[in-house]
Amino acid sequence: MLYLDNSATTQVHPDVKDAMLPYLMEEFGNPSSKYYTVAENAKNAVKKARNSLASLLGCHQSEIIFTSGSTESNNMIIKGVADYYQNQGNHIITSTVEHPSVLETCKYLEEKGFEVTYIDVDKYGRINVDEIEKSIKPSTILVSLIWGNNELGSLNNMEAIADLCFEKNIFLHTDATQVIGKVDFDLMDYPGISFLSFSGHKFHGPKGIGGTFIRKDKYDILTKFTPLLHGGGQEQGIRSGTLAVHNIVGIGRAAEIANSNLAANINKLRELESYLTKILTSKFKDQIVINNDSDNKIPGVMSVLFIGINNELLVKNLAPIIAASTGSACSTSKPSHVLAAVGMSIEQIRSTLRFSMSSFINKEDLEIFYQL
Ligand code: PMP
Prior knowledge:
The chain has helices at residues 14-24, 37-57, 70-84, 100-111, 129-135, 158-168, 245-260, 262-284, 311-318, 337-341, 346-349; strands at residues 2-3, 64-67, 91-95, 115-119, 140-146, 171-175, 195-199, 210-214, 288-290, 301-306, 322-323, 352-356.
């Protein structure tokens, strides 16, 4: 079976599994305990993983807070900033193509009296930076925008967005879930980004672990917000709960691999994407339309419209040989809000498939499409 649904989740890298196993068995200590060996080993393992993530993202290790993944990180930052800064303003800016963990959180805050502006996007799902500027008000406390679109792969102009938020002195949160390990960036170059969310299972780490980058200010203090989870004070009091050491070791190893293979991974994904484009266009000719842009995107993510074909049926029929999806795994029952936001009709959305690749496959594997 050819797995082309890597935007939904990825397979765990074998080295990640090997790194994790001891922490499910003999190295079972709680990193918050002290003095005895298994506790110290757990603490050191968490420290190493935190360093690996910091070097992948280009930040300080103390700016990484482990969470259960991007859903939690997105909730934590948006609700936490809204709560902490409510006396300074009640306005949040986001976009129409965010992940449900951002959109639903914003809707929840609207019910609580916050005002949310949902910025429209262009035909590839990109946010126009001028629109953000126009939407900023004296009451704006947070801008939350996705870095790379999970259905079309389009990258936002994060440099310009971050510069604008920096200049206006407004917190910027970005959901970077889909770009980790696939886009080369360094947070040092984006001083305007205050918060960034990520999930381990999108870059060959385990599920149920992710984190948030939280920028330190010039006084070396982490940007403040109200925690989502109160309790034992782990993660600098920001995210309580006993650390999932095995998962943290896994995401750390995945970050190390992503970091050292970044350029090769990007090249391979680009190659795979252009080969699949070639195969699909030669096989299906004018029966398909490629919805995604061809550059300035996450490599290896494609959105393809099969004219007149029902996407649910197509995914089902392909399932024995190819794993693909109709769009985001988080909203399979509803037609994609992302594709609707870029102006596609319901018929077009219902005929669209997403193919998302990983370096675990080779060009030749894609030739299976010729047999359809
Ligand atoms: N944001 C984006 C852009 C995503 O693609 C996903 C996963 N589909 C999430 C957030 C949520 O990640 P998780 O399910 O790991 O919490």
